[in-house]
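TL;DR need structure tokens for one chain.
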Amino acid sequence: MSSAVNTDMSEFWNGEGGDKWLRFQETIDASLLPFGREVMAAAGILPGERVLDIGCGCADTSFDMARLVGASGRVLGVDISEPILAHARARAMSIAEKNVTFECGDAQLHGFDAAAFDLVFSRFGVMFFDDPRAAFNNLRAALRPGGRAAFICWRPAKDNEWVSKSLEIVSRHVALLDPPGPEDPGPMSFGDPERVTRILTASGFSNIEINSFDTPFTIGRNLDEAVAFLTQMGPASGAIAQSGANDMVKSTIVTDLCEALAPYDIGSGVAMDAATWVVTASAT
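>> reply
TL;DR here they are.
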């Protein structure tokens, strides 16, 4: 297993990536709320269960699941970004959430207690492993016999209007980055359900179910916030950052995006089509 990607991911999320996530935290968590709740429903979380939340971010999903498992259960949130987790811990203290704890680490390498959890959960946090089979081997070992996994991941970019539209607009002004290969990590790397099934099966999971979940994705509370997210944090942000575009080009991109997204502004935010997979599986 190569550690290069892990190092890059750690550096990014403990630096620029973490700073951007915190800047957009309220926007992101509000936008992702229906996705997290859809996979929680699929997971069938019960009182008293022990849940491992992978890529927990600022802990919205961790707090939701803490309420579902109740005082007799517990939730461990894991993320690779210490600045993000510092924010999560501060939020937990402010609301006196006592059955949630956090650990910083790479989930594909982290030394979890064996057979300690009933459920491994993730909202868009499992697509970035450089060795997903090793990662899911590690996560399966953290599950009790008969435990389960439940996560949500993006379908391909062409099925996600919020991705394809923004990339199309940005490509008029700067060259897009080469897309990741079919086995490379990235936000859409679990878009192929056959690949997901192959990885989970090889890692010792069974009873694998993959169901589509399509819903409007509300990107920001207004047009300006949506455009800021897409150009600074969204799928086109890397191309803009690496293009060396001057301020005039960046301003033109913003203007074109505002024009393109205006029809999607529903008053309470910019809502565009989003397509995901909800995946559940059992540990064998």
